[in-house]
Amino acid sequence: MAAHLTHWGVFEAESDGQRLTAVRPWRGxxxxxxxxxxxxxxxxxxxxxxxxxVRQGWLEHGPGAAGRGDEPFVPVSWETVVELVSxxxxxxxxxxxxxxxxxxxxxxxxxxxxxxxxxxxxxxLNCLGGYVRSVHSYSLGTSQVLLPHVIGSxxxxxxxxxxxxxxxxxTELVVAFGGLSPKNSAVSPGGVSRHNxxxxxxxxxxxxxxxxSISPLRDDIPAEAAAEWIxxxxxxxxxxxxxxxxxxxxxxxxxxxxxxxxxxxxxxxxGYVRGETDGVVKDPAWAERITGLSAGRIRSLAxxxxxxxxxxNVSWSLQRAEHGVQxxxxxxxxxxxxxxxxxxxxxxxxxYGSCAxxxxxxxxxxxxxxxQGGNGVSTFIxxxxxxxxxxxxxxxxxxxxxxxxYPDIKLVYWCGGNPFHHHQDLARLHTAFTRPQTVVVHDAFxxxxxxxxxxxxxxxxxxxxxxxxxxxxxxxxxxMKALTRPHGxxxxxxxxxxxxxxxxxxxxxxxxxxxVEEWLRHLYQQWRAGLDDPAVPEFDEFWDSESxxxxxxxxxxxxxxxxxxxxxxxxxxTPSGKIEIFSETIDGFGYADTPGHPxxxxxxxxxxxxxxxxxxxxxxxxxxxxxxxxxxxxxSQSVKIGGREPVRLHPDDAAARGLRDGDIVRIFxxxxxxxxxLVVDDAVRPQVAxxxxxxxxxxxxxxxxxxxxxxxxxLTADRPASTLSQSCAGQLALVEIEPYDGELPDVAVVRPxxxxxxxx
Length: 760
Ligand code: PGD
Fold this sequence. Notes:
Strand order of the largest sheet: 5-4-19-18-17-6
Bound molecules: ligand PGD
Cofactor: Mo-bis(molybdopterin guanine dinucleotide)
Radius of gyration: 26 Å
Helix content: 25-40%
InterPro entries: Asp_de-COase-like_dom_sf, CT_DMSOR/BSOR/TMAOR, Molybdopterin_N, MoPterin_dinucl-bd_dom, Mopterin_OxRdtase, Prok_Mopterin_Oxidored
Strand content: 15-25%
Oligomer: single chain
Pfam families: Molybdopterin (PF00384), Molybdopterin_N (PF18364), Molydop_binding (PF01568)
Domain Molybdopterin dinucleotide-binding: 615-728
Keywords: Metal-binding, Molybdenum, Oxidoreductase
């Protein structure tokens, strides 16, 4: 059996050369996940792309032909498709220049450092002169913009968070805004070898640590935590946090020494909390009206936090929402008021329940990467502004203190991502995708994005190619030998780009004359030489091993311990060198939706707003797959109801609508609607509906606003979380749910699209 790394874990497999015949979790993993079952079952699924295809209208009428997303595909040979794509790239680069090509190509693709799809496409486009890129992520777009202003870097919380083993040893109280979801911390970009969420939580609990989970979903924290569930109204965390701050201040529990020495701007913030600036005291009675929680419990929680070694944890999901800046910033401010930042087990985390690598101690060495080269284009967009960019070329917009202009994109090149899964308001994206002249997509599967392309190039899965890989902060660096032959006539992204580059005349620049095997050896040897560590094996020894265990210099790392010990010698990289409770920089931007210190701002779509849509949809990460990956796999399919994604609703809300467990329901708002299968569950707060992301978008051919399968992004708004970040706010939306009484439409996306033979 050979080990293989995925973003969701390591498995061992046997193969007959074409398919995996046996799969079991890697024996080193204490908490393996069932997501590994999706791989073998999806590999040869009918939705696997078996060869190159071109959209009929584009092939017959050329670039810009109408019908994208609605037309059949024509199977073509590799020779033909290489001719077509290289000719089209030459035309667009020649006529419009590199600034007309969008290569942001956001997406998680697969584990494996060399075949990392974004690195591949970026290197290729850089060889042609560059491309318009995207910055930041759908995961963390708010944090990546806000936290440099407040604490200096987002990366600190990802790479240098206080180790989970330290929490086990020292933390007395974990206050988890957004919970500590084991389904989220089962994955990590690049892979995870040893899952440990339940293990560390159980160990902390056994030592006496208490957990409080503040979330609309009870199961956002594992049972091992035996947590108190505080089921607030979604989107109201900022109000709760302000009231906690008010109690700490009023009761004299704020650590003045810490605030004086390590922060700036506290007085301006606390003036707002006291009501000095707007006449509203942000006390528990005020927060009770917003959050739906009792003022008494808010008051006692603040006191408990001050009396214990407390870790305040804010999940990534909270910032993936309108005004997501506010609870994130307030989490830091509360931790500063408690004065425990830099102490073992205390302070702020972001987030131990959002990704497997958070709380794993930093590695002494990074692992090799495929170099991307230099981009000749400086124009960029915040990643979640893709539809705005395509719809509004030449229009200005604000972002993080800058005034930027949307470029005029003629060609979109996507490799390793699924915007028709990950973006909000998919019907709007469908319209936006009519604008470019050409869309090229590489994927292994007929995702909705592949179906919105003009040219579809079939990529291999990671089990079908040689690679190596390791997740961020993961201890193990794995050789990843191909387990099977490629499906059909699919090729590695590298092979596709190498041939296109050769055809265009930049083959040498792209490949540097190396095969995949030569690249793996070269990158490894270069990395090893840079380390100068005799413990690191030679390439051949590494390639024949199961994995190499990377050194960890400080297994008991405590975030900000240096800063706390000596703030003059180890200042933060903020303008003041301290934690910025008030940011002159942000204040200077003058954005009405992001003032200079955190505040409570009412979102457009929350349960406090009076609308025709009385349910708050929580569109969170799925439990049975990673994002939309391998949605046709056995584990993902095992929870579908009548082929639709499950939506959970509280028993009272189901009864009020005459709905029963297992019903097919229609979820709708003014942007769109989708079908889903109902699960009645009191783990969901009343007035909340939970529908995870990831069901492949399956629009009615006559109506892109209606998804027959259950993708929540037909319902979410394409509205930035803030002017500051311009990031994704897809986590929450207002909806209504009703029984679906019509004839049930087929879920067509689980079959390949229609194809036609070439006319001439
Ligand atoms: P994936 O499903 O991982 O989603 O969005 P993302 O686009 O990353 O897409 C990866 C694609 O790459 C898959 O189609 C897969 O088949 C393909 N692929 C895998 N390996 C390879 C390869 O080697 N080569 C090629 N060419 N293709 C490959 C995820 C995004 O969704 C993220 S990160 C977040 S956090 C957001 N979360 C939410 C949310 O909470 N709520 C809503 N409503 N929306 C969200 N969208 C975002």
